[in-house]
Amino acid sequence: MNAPRRYSLWLLLALACIVSLGDIIAQAQYELRIGVIDYPAGSMLAGARLAADHINSAGGLTGADGTLFELAVVDTTPDNMEIAIANMKQASVFAVIGPQNDTLARRHLSQLQTIQAPVFIPATGDTILLSDHTGRIFRSRAAEHVLINGLADYLATTLAIQSINTIQLDAASTASLVSFANALADFGLRPSNLVFDQSRLNLQQIAEAVAVSAPEAVAIFGPPRLAAQALVQIRDFGYAGERVYSQAREPSFAERLPPDLLPGIISYSTWSASLEDSASQHFTLAYARAFGRLPDALAAASYDALRLIAAATAQGGSVFAALAATSSFAGVQGELNPAGLLPGETSNNAVVTRLNEYGAANVIARYPHTIDPATEPDKVPTVAPTAVALAPSATPTGYRLKITRDFLNVRSGPGTDYEIIGQVIEGSQARILGANADHSWVIIDYRGQWGWVAAYLAETYGDRNLVPIIEPPATPTPAPTDTPSPPTEPDLIVLKAQPARLAIGQATAVDVTILNQGLSPAGSFAVAGSFQPGGQYAGVNLAGLNAGQQANLQLRPLLSGPTGPQSVVIVADLNQEVYEGDAGESNNRAFVYNYMADRPVLASGTWTTSAGSIDLDGDASPDLSWTGNALAALGQAAFAAVGQYSALSQTHFDAISGAPANTTIVDASQLAAKVYALVTADGHRGAMQVTDVTRNGPITIEYRIYR
Q: What's the longest Cα–Cα distance across the chain?
C-alpha cells in the first residue's frame, strides 16, 4: 500500500527539481566586468564593489535588448601601470575606474586610452582632460577649479574675508595657487602671495611675514609635512586668523600637527561622510556596514562612477555616447550631469569643510547646494560659485594679454633659450595666470598646459598684481651636436614569450627568447618571473651570451588558483650579475608577458560540417547538430551566447562556468562571430565560436573543451 505513495513522492520531488532547474536556466545572467586600478584595501575598489553588490542584489543590470547581466569587479594594483593596463585589457572589462593618483593618470593617459573602454579617473587636475581627444576618459569627481571656486566663494561671501595671504611651499602646487588667486579675483579679492626660496625654505621667516601682514586668512599650498610645520610656526608667532589648507584630511598632515591646532582648519573636497542628505547617509551606512570604516570622497566617486556606467549601459548603443548624453543622474556626490559639462566631466559638486575639535571634517558649505533654506538657512551659502568664461571680450577683464603682431611664440619658459611649444596669432586674448619677477614674461593657458609669452611684445590689460610670481623652470641644457658612440657594454633584453595560454594545476613550459643586443659578451645571469595565480616563481640560469646572440629557454611555473588573464614581468639578469651600463640596466624589467591562466584542455580545434552531428569532446556522444539552417544542442548538451566576448581567445573556464541555457538558433545569420559557453552531452564545459557559416551550407566552429 505504501509503495505507490513513495513512488508519487519521488516523482513530485523530481518534478520540483526540474522546475527549479528551469527557473535557474531562465534567469541565467551574463557577467559584465568593471575593472578597478586600486590596492586591495583601497577606497575606490570598496566603493565599486559596494555599487556592484547593490545593483546585483536588486536583480542585476538589464541591457537595452533585455539581456540580464551580473556585474563583476576585477581589480589590479597600480604598482606597475603597464601591467595594470594589460590586466584590464586581458580581462575584457567593459569600463575601468582608476587610477586615483593625478600623476599616474597624467603619465599613463595615452596607455589608458588604448583600453577601448570608458575610463573613469578621480584625478582633479584642471588640465588633465584637455589632453584626451578620444572621448574615452571621464572624470568621476569635480575638477580642482570647481573646488577652489567653492572655497573662494565661502571665504569671500560667507566669511566676508578682505585680506588673504597665500604661502607656496613647493613648485608642484603652483597650479592650485594660480587657480585660487583667479577665483578670489572674481570676488574682487587680491591675495598677497608670500614668495620664498622653495629650495631653502625658512619657515620661521614665513611665520614672521604672516605676523607682520596680519591677514584675516592664510591659505597654504604644498605637501602635508611642510604645511604642518608652517602652521606650527605661524601659531608660535601669534597668528589667530582663519587657516586654509587643501590637504587637511591627509593622515600625514594630522600626524605631524599638534591636536590643538587641528580644529578650525578650512579645506575642500568633492564629498564628505558628514553630509546629511539621504543619499549620502544611506551610502555611508552601507559602506560602514560592509567594510567597517567610513567612506571617503574617492569611495563616493567610485560608487557613483559604476552606477553611472550601469545606467549608460542599460540604454544600449555606444556607451561613450550614452555617458556623454546623461543628465540629472542622482549620485551620492550630488547630481551628475555629463551632458551639461565640458567633455569628460561628470560632476561639479564640491564641499567646503572645517575640522572640528576631534579633527573630523564637518561640511560648512556645499556647491551646488541642495539644502532646503527654509529648514536649514544657516547651512546655505549665500552665493554659489559660477564658472567664469575666459573667452576674448571687447573689454578685457582681470589681467589679460592681447597679441598685436602677426604671431607670437609660446615657450616652455621665460626666455628665448626655452623650447617653442606653439604660437598665438594676432588678435588672440588670454588670461594671464602668472609672471616672472619683473613681469616681462607671463604665463597663459596654452592648449591645456602652461605657456610663457613675452609681455613686452604684446599688450597687457588690468592689474598685474593679481597674479602670483612664478619661479621659472631650469634653463634647458643645449643638446650635444656630436653623435655619441654606441655603448660597449652587454645589454640583455627579453624578446618574446609564449604560449598565450597556460594550464593551471600542471607543469607548463613558457618559451622565452632573450637577446644580448650590446657590443660585449655577457657572463652568467638568471632569467625569472613570478607567475599568477599562485605567485609561482620560475627561473633559469644561463652560462653566458655573446654579443648579438639570442638564446631560447623555458620557465616552468606550476599555477594554482582561479582562471583569468594575467601578466608577469620576465626579468633579464635577475640578480644584476652583468654590468650593462645605465641604459642596459633600465630595460631588464621592461618585458611584460600577458597570458591567460586556464584549466587544462580535453579537446580543442576546428570543426567544419555541411550537415550532421558534431562531437566536440570526442566521446562518441554527439553534442550539436547542424541542419544547414539551425544549430541545436543534442541530449544533455547546452550552449548560450556570451555577449561580453568577441573572440574565443578571451574566454577562460571561470568566465563560462555558469550553466548555459539549452539553445537552438534558427537563423544562421545570427551565429556568425559570436562566442558561446557550452556543456557537452557528457557534462564537459567549454567555449566555442562560429567562425564561418553559410545558410544551406557548411558551418565552421572553433572550440575548446575542458577536462
A: 112
| Predicted pLDDT at 476 | 65
The reported pLDDT for the residue numbered 196 is 64
230 lies in the same domain as 359: yes
* Residues 328 and 200 occupy one common structural domain: no
Give the whole-angstrom CA distance, residue 282 versus residue 303: 12
Same domain, residue pair 226 and 326: no
Domain boundary among 578, 598, 618: 598
For the record, the C-alpha cell of 446 comes out as 596654452
Of the candidates 193, 173, 169, the residue with the CA atom closest to the CA atom of residue 181: 193
**Structural domain contains residue 698:** yes
Distance CA 351, CA 3 (A): 74
**In whole angstroms, how far apart are CA 105 and each of 96, 109, 325, 332, 675?**
12, 6, 24, 23, 33
> CATH code at 431?
2.30.30.40
Q: How far is 385 from 151, CA to CA, in rounded Å?
A: 9
Number of domains in the chain: 5
* Within-domain flag for 17: no
Same domain? 265 vs 291: no
In what helix (H) or strand (E) does residue 61 lie, and over which residues does it extend?
A: strand 61-62
* Closest C-alpha to 675, from 644, 637, 632: 644
Give me the residues of the chain with pLDDT under 70, please.
Answer: 1-29, 195-199, 369-398, 447-449, 465-466, 476-487, 644, 658-662, 664, 666
The upper half-sphere exposure of residue 7, i.e. CA atoms within 13 Å in the direction of its Cβ, equals 4
Do 150 and 260 lie in a common domain?
Answer: yes
Whether 20 maps to a domain, the answer reads no
- DSSP at 552: E
Domain match, 45 and 136 both = yes
Distance CA 179, CA 149 (A): 8
pLDDT score, position 584: 80
> Cell for 566?
594575467
pTM over 0.70: no
pLDDT for position 466: 65
Query: Which H or E run includes 146?
Result: helix 144-153
Looking at the structure, do residues 323 and 373 belong to the same domain, yes or no? no
- Give CA–CA dist 163/28, Å, rounded: 64
Q: Which domain holds residue 551?
A: 492-598
Cα three-residue angle 691-697-705, rounded to 5 degrees = 40
Determine the 3-state secondary structure of 616 from DSSP. coil
Q: Given 573, 598, 623, which residue is the final one in a domain? A: 598
By DSSP bridging, strand 429-435 and strand 441-446 are antiparallel
The grid coordinates of residue 363 equal 561640511
CATH of the domain at 63: 3.40.50.2300
Cα 660 to Cα 180, 565, 600, 671, distances in angstroms: 57, 22, 21, 16
Q: Which three cell numbers stand for residue 495?
A: 624578446
> Which pLDDT does position 385 carry in this prediction?
31
Q: Are 402 and 457 contacting, i.e. CB atoms less than 8 angstroms apart?
A: no
Q: What is the pLDDT of residues 367-417, one digit of tens each?
A: 985 433 333 434 333 323 322 222 333 333 457 888 888 778 888 889 888
- String of b and e for 670-700 (b: at least 16 CB within 10 Å)? ebeeebbbbbbbeebbbbbbbbebeeeeebe
Q: Which residues contact 468 (CB under 8 A, 6 or more apart)?
A: 166, 168, 174, 177, 178, 181, 193, 195, 434
pLDDT at 477: 59
pLDDT for position 390: 28
* Domain-embedded: residue 242: yes
Same domain, residue pair 298 and 260: no
Ramachandran angles phi, psi of 506, nearest 5°: -145, 155
